[in-house]
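Re: that chain you flagged

S.,

Sorry for the slow reply, it's been a week of failed gels. I finally had a moment to sit down with the sequence you sent. For the record, here it is as I used it:
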Amino acid sequence: MSIPDISREKSAALYDKAKTYFPGGVNSPVRAFKSVYGTPLFIEKGDGSHIWDADGNEFIDFCCSWGPLILGHNHSSVREKVMEVMQKGMSFGAPTALENELAELILSNNRFIEKIRFVSSGTEAVMSAIRLARGYTKRDKILKFEGCYHGHTDSLLVKAGSGLVTFGETSSAGVPKAFADETIVISLNDKEALQEAFNEFKGQIAAVIIEPVPANNGLLLQTPEYLEYLRRICTQNGTMLIFDEVISGFRIGFEGAAAYYNIQPDIITYGKIIGGGLPVGAYGASAEVMDHISPVGSVYQAGTLSGNPVAMAAGIAQLTELLKPGFYDELHTKTAHFVKSIQEFVANRSYNFKVFTIGSVFWFAFTDRTGISTAEEIDPASMLKFKEMHRELINRGIYLGPSGYEVGFISAAHTMADLETTKTAIFDSLDIVFKQGS
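Prediction finished late last night. Pasting the structure tokens below so you have them in one place:
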């Protein structure tokens, strides 16, 4: 049965005040809780797998700051390293040994890139990778996929138009049509559309960019065969393949999706996890490609806070933990057990509900499909059920991202007790959602 809504009095008051300062009261749109019930929760602290809001409500957190907190909140190794470095200063706009240390940690454990450039966000990493691909190939057009999100870069903030192969249509005011006209948008998992795009724009496509694990519009898992085909057709056409691994990098394995699928992209973008919870991004490629970047090459990219020592320190501490033997095996085993229990429950109840998963990432979908690999296969009406589920889970102390299109994350800090508590809350919530819908 439903239980009373938690108190949000202090969060609501903070939100009312925030709306006088920020557009919509937030600094990133999804935080406004427009897709779920209630006002946004203002988070006061986090520790391990738990967070607390301004009203003192405690939650088991599966948002994990949208993925980077793979060790959980306030991990001692990360916190202590950051505090140590902060004593010496927080920004210099000059090289530090910490940049070398984090780069060596990444490059010596990643077969897929030879040089790297640190930036301050995933969006900045993608923007820079696109510029590098255009500068390297001397071409202008970019091909992206409906359902993949690559940050708020103008040329990628586009959606598909009508037709099998189409130029993108702007999905935000302020994005010039001329920018969108350089971006081709097709559906995921469609070889015919991909081939048609290369036929129609022969010799014009600088790069194809894809989330190899699309996780910003549901979890739209692609087959290895399709990703291998994508690699081949890019190679055949002299087009660079960019893997946007801002979410999947270091999350499904230290070498990310490139290693998971054993596919060599031309450029890879990273973010989130390599900052240990602080703002950071990166892009990497072969030494030959990366040497097209200024100051040794003609592709310009710069940033005052790139390689910020505090972010580098957090990344060093976090990635060191990820490299410990058995880290990913334990995390993935824990996630698989969690997902399996939920799948068994819904199967016994004959609920149209699936949990899609890879590594320690999961996505709840109200569907009877055995697989969802394209944005078009997601039923928008199913989001009403997620809205109900989200409210029931919040009231039971379980925090998911406030949108049915967002994925969830399990961290090393989630205990088996946390997961048992969460499963009970999910089972009760699903019973309510499907009873209301019957």
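What I noticed first: The chain has a mean pLDDT of 95.

Talk soon,
D.
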